[in-house]
Amino acid sequence: MKLAILILITLMITSCNSQTDLETLKFEDKLLNLDNLEKDYSIYVPLEGIYKVKDIDKFKYSNIVIGSDSIKFKNELIVYKNSLNLIVNSYDNNQYLGFELELINEKTGDKFLNFLIKKHGKPLKEYKYLKNEYKDIDYLWQNKSTNEIILFQKYNETSHTSLDGNKNAVLSKTRVIIVKDGLSAKPNENDPRNTPEKIKAVLDSNPKAFELIEIFKNSIIN
User: Which residue among 110, 159, 191, 196 sits deepest, i.e. has the most Cβ atoms within 10 Å of its Cβ?
Assistant: First the structure.
């Protein structure tokens, strides 16, 4: 009886402490548990099926702990926080297509970059500008063997004042987007600027213009 109780307690602790590993999620698998998700949008991933994760502590990536870090600066109303979006093909089918992660912990962001370089090797496109604490870093990979597109972006700002009065406080923002290769966006039909003539002109100049890989390429300075 004591052994049974001990096993039950162990299972409960494991269940409570378990985290979903984003690296092991399979593209097109259906998300079954939506309790920790709410419908949202993304300005960086122009797809319709975007879920915001409410409790980010329930997720990790490989051996990288994401965590619910936050930071606030003096005379600013906003509180900067880690955030995680899961991307699906539609809100009806909920087939997983990738994720978008934003981090404000620079060390965690650097862990991601080192991991991605080691895993995916030479990037398809990259950009770096480093000057003292100011950093602007972009990497883009297209890994055919894993069927992934990976966009890594890091940006350090020094125009903030910390709560203790440091006028050169650094805000480090890292964005990691990993999505299924081959995805394309659709022009917003409700935007009056997206006339058939303009869409045709865009596609005439680049037939692949609405593919995510092309959109991500264009987000990186040449």
Answer: 110
Question: Please, which residues bridge with residue 128 across strands?
Answer: 137
1 in a structural domain: no
Question: Rounded to an integer, what distance in angstroms lies between the CA atom of residue 214 and that of residue 35?
Answer: 33
**Domain count along the chain:** 1
Query: CA of 125: how far to CAs of 57, 100, 199, 211, in Å?
Result: 31, 19, 26, 16
Whole-model pTM: value is 0.88
H or E element: which one contains 150? strand 148-160
Domain assignment of residue 111, given as a range: 20-218
Q: Give the Cα-Cα-Cα angle 191, 88, 81 (nearest 5 degrees).
A: 85
Is position 11 within any domain? no
Average pLDDT for consecutive 10-residue bins of the chain (222 residues)? 38 52 96 94 93 96 93 91 96 97 95 96 95 90 97 92 87 96 86 82 83 94 84
